[in-house]
TrEMBL record:
Keywords: Calcium, Coiled coil, Ion channel, Ion transport, Membrane, Transmembrane, Transmembrane helix, Transport, Voltage-gated channel
Compartments it resides in: Membrane
Record organism: Marinomonas arenicola
Protein name according to UniProt: Ion transporter
Transmembrane spans: 20-39, 51-72, 141-163, 206-228
Lineage of the species this protein comes from: Bacteria, Pseudomonadati, Pseudomonadota, Gammaproteobacteria, Oceanospirillales
Ion transport domain location: 21-238
Record's bilayer topology term: Multi-pass membrane protein
Length: 282
């Protein structure tokens, strides 16, 4: 009796944790938590501030209960901590238990409450898919970033050699030159920099046009292309896994049907043998 009650309770917890309305409620609480963090940056009346503190306490307790439910609803408790998103949620929730008093940990507590907004990523599957694809694209993006650094370094060296006497504040050394080129790449008043050097070198516009073409168009599109390629492969793998799971489910169902047909055939054979034996006795 106790085993059946515990089994029913476990099934109830799993059903509640995986229900659509519960997931939607969690998303709503996360959004409210984000709003409370933003509200605390304003000067509010003491009554409103007290209400926000009570609301923050309720949100913290709710997140603790929610993570506990997810842990209890997991079939394999050790597998729960093998998922990085579950570990992330657990750290954020446990860190949020740090009291918001005038202690040395107050800044850490505030930061962890800000990071609670990131729990939207762990709750919404599509956001998890995007973040996972972005993380997997980082190695390839690293090579593109290295190539961009080489281009920045070469153009900064050239700019420092030719333009240092024009404006020492922008082209005084290679580090300042790279910062100036970053300003050019982000289109932050880059024409002012170009026109200043064109007064001495009329053809220096070629330097800026080539640099902008490489950084703002070629390398940016390469970054986007890498992310899209990873997302395409992730989508294909996801669809392949779904097909494999469906195929395995069909194989299992067919195997069960074959066993049932075999048992039915054995039953019919046994009944037929009993009838034949009764006829012979007669």
């Amino acid at each position: 009796m106790e085993m059946s009650r515990s089994g029913n309770a476990f099934a109830l917890v799993k059903r509640v944790e995986r229900s659509v309305w519960f997931q939607g409620f969690i998303i709503s609480i996360i959004i409210i938590a984000a709003l409370t963090v933003g509200a605390k940056t304003y000067s509010l009346p003491s009554g409103v501030e007290l209400a926000i503190n009570y609301l923050d306490t309720f949100i913290t307790v709710f997140f603790l209960v929610e993570v506990s439910l997810r842990f209890l609803a997991c079939d394999d408790r050790w597998r729960f901590f093998k998922d990085p998103w579950n570990v992330f949620d657990t750290i954020i929730v446990i860190g949020s238990l740090v009291p918001m008093s005038d202690t040395d940990m107050v800044l850490v507590a505030r930061l962890l409450r800000v990071f609670r907004v990131l729990r939207l990523v762990s709750i919404i599957p599509d956001l998890r898919f995007l973040i996972n694809a972005l993380i997997k694209a980082i190695p390839k993006m690293g090579y593109i970033a290295l190539l961009m650094f080489i281009i920045f370094y070469i153009f900064a060296a050239v700019g420092s050699i030719f333009f240092e006497h024009i404006n020492d504040k922008l082209w005084g050394d290679i580090a300042i030159s790279m910062l100036t080129l970053f300003r050019v790449a982000t289109f932050e008043d880059w024409t002012d920099v170009m026109y200043e050097t064109m007064e001495v070198y009329p053809l220096s516009w070629i330097f800026y046009v080539v640099f902008i073409f490489l950084t703002a168009f070629v390398f940016l599109n390469m970054m986007v292309g890498v992310v899209l390629d990873v997302m395409t492969r992730e989508t294909a793998e996801k669809e392949h896994d779904a097909q494999e799971n469906n195929h395995q489910a069909l194989v299992t169902q067919i195997s069960e049907l074959q066993k049932q047909v075999a048992r039915l055939a054995d039953t019919l054979d046994a009944q037929q043998q009993e009838k034949d034996g009764s006829k012979k006795e007669r």
